[in-house]
Amino acid sequence: MYYEIYLDVYFLENLMLYFLILQFAEFIQKDTFSMARKLLASGIGAFGACMLVVFPIHKSRILSVVCSILLCFLTAYTAGKKRGSRSWRKMVFSFCILSLFLGGIWQFFIAYLKLPFWIAAMAGYAAARLLWKYWQKAKAGTGYLYDVTLKRGTAQISLKGLLDSGNQLTEPLTDRPVHIVDYDEICRLLSDVEILELDSFLDMEIGGSMRGGFVYVPYHSVGESRGVLPAMTLDSMEIRHGESAWSTKRVLVAVSRKAVSSRGKYQMILHPRILE
Prior knowledge:
Layout: H1 7-28, H2 35-54, H3 61-80, H4 85-111, H5 117-142, E1 145-152, E2 155-163, E3 178-182, H6 183-186, H7 192-202, E4 215-219, E5 227-241, E6 244-256, E7 268-270
Helix pairs in contact: 1-2, 1-4, 1-5, 2-3, 3-4, 4-5
């Protein structure tokens, strides 16, 4: 099977593709490269792509792969070399990964949607940016989620906690930071008698002393009137985030009958002073 390739068109197509890849690398790295350097690097990449077609390199898969990798390296190095050794290495890595990623998107638009090359190139670039923004947004939504272990006596529970800078709840007399945990979770640490006492308080049927060791913590939130929450002291709390870990003795946690997360992503709201 033979293909007829117009080198001038092929050069312009690859010039556009390499330029878009550099643009995307610039976007995700939150850095800027000069227009002249990006055009020069794209021109080198496009010229190299044409040479891979002109010379019978494509007949050997191994040689073709090696030359393609070297071409990506040269293109990325040209775009980022003046920013220091550390920067151009990051640029080379990003460029190689993005070449595969964007190449797959472009192939989908061309092969399956039958879009013209120029439209497919721009649509693929726009789709890649949208996917990146969506991924960044999703990542940000879980960036402050911690793995939490609460211990009381011989019992312990594991849950997800959100580190919320807006949680400034403290115990009035001692100024101890107060964390907020879901009712269903804290009940796993309580006896049946303690659960009945907690239910009575939450139902506003307080009568007599609370033998479970609860204290009353006043609170006020936006859109809601003032009130009080039952809180109790637990033996310890351990939190983990990635490779980092913290452990605190005798932590004060308040109980909320209403779920702290409407979507169930976390079951506890951590006070920001826990990391101090």
